[in-house]
Amino acid sequence: MSHPVIFCDFDGTITETDNIISLMKAFAPPEWEPIKEDILNQSVSIKEGVSKLFSFIPSSQKDEMIQYLMETAVIREGFKEFVDYTKVNEIPLYIVSGGIDFFVHPLLKEFGPFKAVYCNEAIFNDSTITIHWPYPCDVHCENKGCGCCKPSILRALSLENHEVIVIGDSVTDIEMAKLGDTVLARDYLARTCEEKGIPYHPFETFHDCINVIEKGVTI
After folding, report:
1. Could you tell me the pTM of the whole model?
2. Residue 75, H or E segment
3. What are the b/e assignments for 142-169, b being 16+ CB within 10 Å?
4. Cα 132 to chain center, whole Å?
């Protein structure tokens, strides 16, 4: 059997809620809400939409935002045990996030190290926050505006002899799920998998994810 490799989303997957949405609710003016809907219905790209969202927030609030998420973000049940399980079984675990480095790394710090952590980057040099996108879409991506393009990251790695396990919850995970041999999905991603006929396993905790991976199931 080919060796498994795991690609796991962060916001809404490792954490109980989407941290960008949490920050917008706490720090952005009401104008952010229509942009969120545009992102979800895919009328604007993730890259364009998230850039607009953070342009509403002053750079001076960086430390306040980090402190807010460190105090309020909830790590999904079983994540520590899940990370331990991957280490014991020598399963590479990549974190692929549409989130931003200034909160992704602090929230993950106590659980690492991981095989790699891919996320977007915030620049606080100007009056409002600018987002930098170090992992753009490759020539095979049809969306051309993913921000952190998860399928492009998968394609850039040598995965021919691996069973690709994808874990996610949102619009940023749809294209990655299409490349997975085993998909674990919840919330928006689960509904989209249903609509698009992508086979998946539902999950609520990372104990569920361990159970699926232990069975070696690909559906």
Report:
1. 0.93
2. none
3. ebebbbbbbbbbbeeeebeebbbbbbbb
4. 16
Helix, strand, or coil (residue 211): helix
DSSP of 137-162: --TT-SSS--SS-HHHHHHHS--TTE
Domain boundaries, given as residue ranges, for the chain: 3-215
pLDDT tens for 141-160 read: 887 788 899 999 999 997 88
| Average pLDDT over every residue of 68-88 | 97
Q: Is the peptide bond before 29 cis (omega within 30 degrees of 0)?
A: no
Report the C-alpha gap between 20 and 69 in whole angstroms. Answer: 10
Please tell me the CATH code under which domain 3-215 is placed: 3.40.50.1000
Residue 57 amino acid letter: I
Ordered DSSP codes for 29-55: -TTHHHHHHHHHTTSS-HHHHHHHHHT
**Token duo for residue 2:** 């080919």
